[in-house]
Task: structure prediction
Amino acid sequence: MPTMTIKYRACNLCEAICGLEIELEGNVVKSIRGDAKDPFSKGHICPKATALADMNADPNRLRTPVRRTATGWESISWQEAFTEVASKLEAIKSRDGANAIAFFIGNPAVHNAGTLLSMPNLIRAVGSRNRFSATSVDQLPQQVMSGLMLGNPNLLPVPDITRTKYWLILGANPLESNGSLMTAPDVKNHLKNIQARGGKVVVIDPRKTETAKAASEHFFIKPASDAFLLLAMIHTLFSENLVKMGKLEGFTDGIEELRQAVRPFSPERVAAKIGISSDEIKRLTREFSSSDSAVAYGRIGLSIQKFGAVCQWLVYALNMLTGNFDRAGGMMFPAPAFETVRSKGDWAFGRTTTRVRGLPEANGEFPVAALAEEILTEGQDQVRAFVITCGNPVLSTPNGKNLETALESLEFMVAIDPYITETTRHAHIILPPAMGLETEHYDVTFLSLSIQNSAKYSQVTVPKAEDAMFDWEIIGELSKRLGGEAAKNPAEMIDAGLKRGRYQLSLEQLRENPHGIHLGELTEQCPERIQNPEKRIRLAPSLVLNDLERLENDLEQPQAEFVLIGRRELRSNNSWMHHVGRLNRDQPRCTALMHPDDASSLGAKSGSSLRISSRVGLITIPLETSADMARGVVSIPHGYGHAMRDDVQPHAKGVSINDLTDDLELDVSGNAALNGIAVQIALA
Result:
């Protein structure tokens, strides 16, 4: 009879990295619970964690390489797959140059140390400048502002919500996302604790989200007007002499430039654009500035709009001008055991641009909104081959139908992925890696974004099949065959990084502490932590100062009758997990959420079918009415539109919001503007 055992690891499905206690009978998972002994998550998990076993045992996972043929997919050996992939890529590179090969790295890569640490070797081996990722449909504006203001795009401060007295949340729904660019298990309990200690939580959002319902106060705001609100708040700080930077004043440049920049944006002038009265804007500002500690947190709703960089700049500035930057209860820097931030001199934005539209490079990548045109437009360096891992950009990037057309035209495409998806179905070869419970893991990224310092290493829970390969082995083999470095076990790199880190830990120590090690609260680190060569904060980058003219022009533009925003869901992860039965048993969640009065004006009611169109496409979707929505706004969740998998739950297939979002609508950083898109709506 198989032996019953208990193993511990971190859940790597989302950023909260909750500790898990997994009960096994032999190699079969019997139960997954929260690890009460994890010093960080303390037993908290969300519904997704319980589905890890379903994903691991999924009979529809690819277990061996497959090749697309005229009659369908055929299994091939690893040796045959590697030989064909390497020869095809080498031939295209030899004929058309390295830039004819493009790379895309999706969001799950940062949840997997193997991919994260090995993929740079493969990219170097090919030598292409055409690199794209999910960054430019997510957090790129914040990374660009960290680069320009703090000297490194990976130097991302987080809200110290364990000690704050006032949490201002803009464009974020951490109860559903489990935190985002903020590793914070059990946000619901943190919200309660802030209020229990006499503090306040304020949410600004076009929808009364799950987080807003648990907050002290919620304000509806017109989509894509957040920059005007933040400008008006900073205007109030200066006009009412509420600026109190404290120690930051000694190492911050650009205060006067910022003062002059916000002068045209008084609360009275912008209130109508925002949908919040000037009196309320001033009250919010006074409350924030007078609190014992406060932190403003602006997340994806701020980044994926046409003024994303300006928004993230102003969030940083609001925290800095009130002395709530690098201060307990404010915005602080984690001190991870494995350091991901290393100074490389003076960081620059837009060192090169894309071939077709001239869009700027950031941190070695181009905006993914340019990917389709780089494939479809003929000429020197036209993309003819594509390497993709950890992504489904047909569903997750703007104007997905156009990207699908582009992928169909490729000479060669290889995907490192365990599934045939709406994107990977266009690959010529798919290389499926071992995944989930079969892998070792250290959260390189999210332990660097944690609201408390900790370290944890996840060992293999269930062994992979004998002939299966880990992602780093697949990537390493391709790299070696293309003239690059051979595979290197990421455990060796993690161990070396831990040993030279600030706590001088080792993998051996972490293996001896399977629940993880708590390394303390966040501490003040400035000015030493600033990565600009002069160790000073640059408060007024020219990129965003120059973008204020575009913002000024937008102030006079009327809002469309209906505008589109996204929606985050607790039980799914972007474009995946919709096949897991235990997460998709209830009613359909891919609906168009609208205010009842808007529905009535269309002659529609809950359950009606709506036709929603934009410049790039049209979808038909069921309506769901809710007074939680602002008037004139329609919300559709991201990541749906499944057409490839029979095992996706019928009511979870849905439609793709990115058949409506526009690849020509961008922020100055190059990030896609997926929120605030004008749409036309009619009863189907």
Summary: The chain has four domains: 4-56, 66-138+343-441+465-488, 142-337+527-545, 560-683.
